[in-house]
Amino acid sequence: MTETLSSDIPDTLQDAIERLLRTACDADLSLATAESCTGGLLASLLTDVQGCSHAFERGFVVYTEKAKQEMLGVAADLLEKHGAVSEPVARAMAEGRSGTPTPMSPCRSPVSPGRRRRGRRASCISPAPARDG
């Protein structure tokens, strides 16, 4: 169980995080995150599980389009075409640090699911895992 956020995090999410970390530990994988709207929450959850947090290696919080481009190599045309909060951009963020161990990038829209933002349907939290090699 997570230590610092346990009262605010649903049990189903805590269970999923623990399963992910135990699976990574069992497979001798290291995890990394590339986050934007979640502001480092996923990285926090991954480092908060006793006995398995060593499976988490690093995290990137890149809120602006400029940061996504500079730190993770997300193409400007991809941002323009799909918007910063989209599954294609989340995937590009996850894949943007080649050589990074098993990166993940959650994509969450600040508007309610079903509403439209910049002419596109808003998405919910949608993890975009990538694996190096």
From TrEMBL:
* Top-level lineage group: Bacteria
- Please name the Pfam families in this protein's record: CinA
Q: Which Gene3D superfamilies match?
A: CinA-like
Q: Where is this region: Disordered?
A: 90-133
- Classification via InterPro entries: CinA-like_C (IPR036653), CinA_C (IPR008136)
Q: Which residues form the CinA C-terminal domain?
A: 18-96
Protein name listed in UniProt: C-terminal domain protein of CinA type S
